[in-house]
Q: What sequence folds into this?
């Protein structure tokens, strides 16, 4: 019995491998050989690491399977890591929060207005403060208090949720707890954090007050992947805004929160659109 032909579909294909001649020819050969129309193609060879990175959007009249089969053959030949996904597919996402709600509000609003390709299956908080925000947007809120004694149990509840809901991305939207090495490794490359500074940062409590005391002229934010090394994960996006001597600490907090919202949303967008590829401790970001 013959296989039923697949329906036409738009796909996004990513690949990373040691750089050598013939990679682009091989990838485009898979696409054209299956009658695919290449909508967009970006590539980069990193001279420091010797790695090659590629992202291709294609309109495939033969569906997904033939493209995957072709990419699997390329992976074997070029020692490549690759991925094929439906273009624009919404990633199943968990957002983790503590008490500050500006990033959560922004992400849920963007999801609600179709401006961000995520499907938030739950908001997890270690405090109950932001439950009304999640409920307003129709998203389940799960309260998971964290203490020194309950940390392992709390993280196990999170892992159980990730498995049960087939979660693909975790976003730390000003979640003020340090994740364990076990959790970081289990979700490597799938946890994004927003840091309240243009790294390197003012360490410890009240960073904006410290910045104000030092008379800084720029404040910013950094979105990065979470690793076992605190605030040292590969950086996805950063931005800054200018401040002056006339800005008070509350002024700087408001300006900083606005930057945090923008930077986190951009990082999440690029991740969900498969625009971020890992190059050791750095990232290659194929922005538009």
A:
């Amino acid at each position: 019995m013959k296989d039923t032909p697949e329906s036409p579909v738009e796909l996004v294909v990513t690949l990373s491998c040691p750089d050598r001649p013939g990679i682009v020819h091989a990838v485009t050969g898979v696409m054209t050989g299956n009658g695919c129309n290449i909508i967009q193609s970006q590539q980069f060879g990193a001279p420091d690491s010797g790695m090659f990175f590629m992202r291709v959007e294609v309109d495939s009249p033969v569906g997904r399977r033939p493209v995957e089969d072709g990419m699997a053959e390329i992976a074997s030949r070029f020692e490549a890591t690759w991925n094929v996904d439906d273009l624009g597919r919404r990633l199943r996402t968990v957002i983790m929060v503590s008490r500050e709600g500006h990033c959560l509000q922004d992400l849920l609003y963007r999801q609600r207005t179709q401006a961000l390709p995520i499907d938030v299956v739950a908001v997890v908080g270690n405090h109950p403060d932001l439950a009304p925000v999640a409920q307003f947007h129709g998203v389940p809120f799960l309260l998971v208090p964290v203490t020194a004694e309950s940390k392992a149990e709390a993280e196990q509840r999170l892992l159980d949720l990730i498995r049960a809901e087939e979660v693909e991305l975790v976003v730390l939207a000003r979640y003020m707890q340090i994740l364990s090495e076990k959790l970081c490794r289990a979700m490597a490359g799938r946890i994004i954090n927003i840091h309240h500074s243009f790294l390197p940062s003012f360490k410890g409590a009240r960073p904006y007050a410290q910045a104000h005391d030092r008379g800084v002229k720029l404040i910013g934010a950094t979105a990065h992947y979470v690793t076992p090394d605190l605030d040292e994960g590969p950086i996805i996006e950063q931005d800054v805004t200018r401040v002056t001597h006339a800005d008070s600490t509350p002024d700087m907090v408001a300006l900083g929160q606005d930057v945090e919202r923008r930077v986190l949303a951009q990082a999440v967008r690029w991740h969900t659109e498969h625009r971020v590829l890992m190059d050791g401790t750095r990232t290659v970001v194929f922005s538009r």
The helical segments are 23-33, 65-78, 102-112, 131-136, 151-164, 181-186, 207-214, 249-272. Residues 239 and 262 are 8 Å apart (CA to CA). The two ends are 44 Å apart (CA to CA). The mean pLDDT is 92.
